[in-house]
Amino acid sequence: MPENVKTPDPARRSERSRQAILTAATELVSEVGYQKLTIEGVASRAGVGKQTIYRWWPDKGAVVLDAYLALTNADAGLSFPTSDDLEADLKIVLQSTVGQLADDSFARFYRSLLTAIQNDEKLSQQLNERLMGPWLEATKERLRVAGIADVDLDAAVDMFYGSFYYRWLLRTGPLTSEYCDSVIALLLRALRP
Amino acid sequence: MPENVKTPDPARRSERSRQAILTAATELVSEVGYQKLTIEGVASRAGVGKQTIYRWWPDKGAVVLDAYLALTNADAGLSFPTSDDLEADLKIVLQSTVGQLADDSFARFYRSLLTAIQNDEKLSQQLNERLMGPWLEATKERLRVAGIADVDLDAAVDMFYGSFYYRWLLRTGPLTSEYCDSVIALLLRALRP
Amino acid sequence: MPENVKTPDPARRSERSRQAILTAATELVSEVGYQKLTIEGVASRAGVGKQTIYRWWPDKGAVVLDAYLALTNADAGLSFPTSDDLEADLKIVLQSTVGQLADDSFARFYRSLLTAIQNDEKLSQQLNERLMGPWLEATKERLRVAGIADVDLDAAVDMFYGSFYYRWLLRTGPLTSEYCDSVIALLLRALRP
Amino acid sequence: MPENVKTPDPARRSERSRQAILTAATELVSEVGYQKLTIEGVASRAGVGKQTIYRWWPDKGAVVLDAYLALTNADAGLSFPTSDDLEADLKIVLQSTVGQLADDSFARFYRSLLTAIQNDEKLSQQLNERLMGPWLEATKERLRVAGIADVDLDAAVDMFYGSFYYRWLLRTGPLTSEYCDSVIALLLRALRP
DNA sequence: AGGTAACCGAGACGGTACGTCCCGTCTTCTC
DNA sequence: GAGAAGACGGGACGTACCGTCTCGGTTACCT
């Protein structure tokens, strides 16, 4: 099975260029959105040749994902809160999410990412492995710790986060603090025995 | 107040062209997806001048939405089931949704639509007014009829549908029949007093 | 034999664009030479989309040829001089050629054309049909009128013009007035019985 | 006066690489022509780093010239024939030239070389010094030996060779044996008193 | 004999131009 | 006046090479 694809040598990769590209992508996706973001635009702002982007990423979706991961990993320690009050912990998580999405720049970025995913299963997998998956698992673990059992936890966390994503992606309503409370209240009623 | 915008006369509009365009758009969005769908491609397949499309729709998002509406309205009778068994009715609705999304062609179409609205608030509004809104309202009404009260129904229906959209859009898991059951079970536990 | 090639409709061709392209090409070939002339450069200077060039010409060689033809046809009435003094007529022609080639801008243009020809037989044919051929024929006719016979006129005119092209293209020596005289003297000795 | 230009040490030059480069260039110029020949292509086929080419040659024109010289020097003994029959000697030379140009591979190579010198005066000078000049001088000497005098020999040899180059470069006609005879006949008539 | 400087292969880099695909507008001609 | 057709100025695509620049590795000279 002869590999015809020229695979560049990661050892020789320019860290400076990589950073510049991710930064430029981050800025541009916030400024103009995913659809209007162009590889040429990223290359130009990063002061980089287009080929340097195409050498390391297959398409703009991959660049945007990497840019997002670089951004969130920078924020780093995103662990699920673990007090002894489940309701309070859930509220913290939702409010924090709502807070982030209220930032227009971040919102545009995140929306772009989810848009990109729709046409690229590989990208979607990566996002799940490196971001959504761990987070969903952490959420389920928090529920288990709270003594929740005899319940399909996967469905539970999907309802928990899904309600928010649904509202936000389809723009069927605003993400208010009251909405957080309602969702949490309903969830807890569903989970309590 | 002179209107500068050239508003074409809808009376003279060619129904034949309109149909051809919507059909072409429907086919193409299923075949190549939203991103790779082009106005020129639609015009060409529809045997129509590009101007005819630009005259009646502002952009490809609008065409795709119209194509989708034409498709679902054709199926017509989309009313929420109203037996005396709420659980059964909810199951019917979810299973039917799951069934539709299992059709690759439809799934690509629907995914395209949701992609399109991410970058176009006007489109999003239209979709909500003409499709999502009425359906959400019908769902809430069905719950009210079942005697559900003292509960934030908006949050409830968001959790109901959101769980599915979340799984499907983020591809965090498969949409199985068991998953439907789990979601409905949780929802009913949350709604029952 | 189905023609798959999209042949644009010449009737709809924009004369304004055609002129702008030929003018831009003429200027650029004089300024930077053939090798460094780019389609993008021509399009940009002409205020024209690249596609408009690619629609009507197969490559930059064809554009340069057309530009050259437009230039010389503009000068128009290029007919071989016909006095009753053959030597004088030949001298007029050579001196005029030498004069043109002394103009750096024209020289670069002409050199470009001959360069382009070397890698494109079709181009070469066109040049011969529309420029070199008629001119060689006119030269031969002038010799016939002067009563030259029993001689291979094709070889004679090739020696006449070839000597100049040879010097000029290979840069083996300067094109002086004395050189003209020498060539003509030799040619006449070869032709006189 | 400090020399800023990095002059590599010729003593350390790799003869193996030099040969490989010239061979690769020779092959490629015959295969794809001068315009489509690339430094990267030569380096790749020669199994050589690009820098090794740029270290020893200023541009691809210089490489092609060197490749040509290596080729012809290999054939070596290029001395003008000197029998006591001038006409026969001239015929030998022309026929040999025609023979070479009939070889498509050589023809493409030679055409490339002449194309290259059009945009590079330095290259042109080198070609004249090392190839054309000596040969023209040898031709003139042969004519002198034959007792030709009172004639501009420079013009004579230009007409001799020029006729052929003219036909060949402009492709105004085929290079046949009869054409050789015609040119020689005319030349001799011009030179004989 | 060991150190070191230069050449070498490889190929990543910032760029320019390629030739193609569409965009949204404009123009022409037909029905 | 709507519609089919498609040319137009323009922007971006993804690719091919440019000429420069590191990066080990391998010579070949010089202490």
Topology diagram in text:
The structure is a homotetramer of 193-residue chains.
Chain A: H1 15-32, H2 39-46, H3 50-56, H4 60-75, H5 86-102, H6 104-118, H7 121-145, H8 153-170, H9 177-191
Helix pairs in contact in A: 1-2, 1-4, 1-6, 4-6, 4-7, 5-9, 6-7, 7-8, 8-9
Chain A binds a DNA duplex (31 and 31 nucleotides) through helix 2 and helix 3.
Q: Would you mind describing this structure in some detail?
A:
The structure is a homotetramer of 193-residue chains. Chain A is an all-alpha fold and 193 residues long. The first copy, chain A, has two domains: 10-60, Homeodomain-like (Arc Repressor Mutant, subunit A, Orthogonal Bundle); 78-191, Orthogonal Bundle (Tetracycline Repressor, domain 2), CATH 1.10.357. In chain A, 72% of the residues lie in helices and 0% in strands. Chain A is built from nine helices and no strands. In chain A, helix 4 crosses helix 6 (104-118) and helix 5 (86-102) runs antiparallel to helix 9 (177-191). The longest helix of chain A is centred in the C-terminal third of the chain and has 25 residues, at 121-145. The radius of gyration of chain A is 20 Å and the shape is elongated. At the A-B interface, helix 6, helix 7, helix 8 and helix 9 of A face helix 1, helix 6, helix 7, helix 8 and helix 9 of B. Chain A binds a DNA duplex (31 and 31 nucleotides) through helix 2 and helix 3.
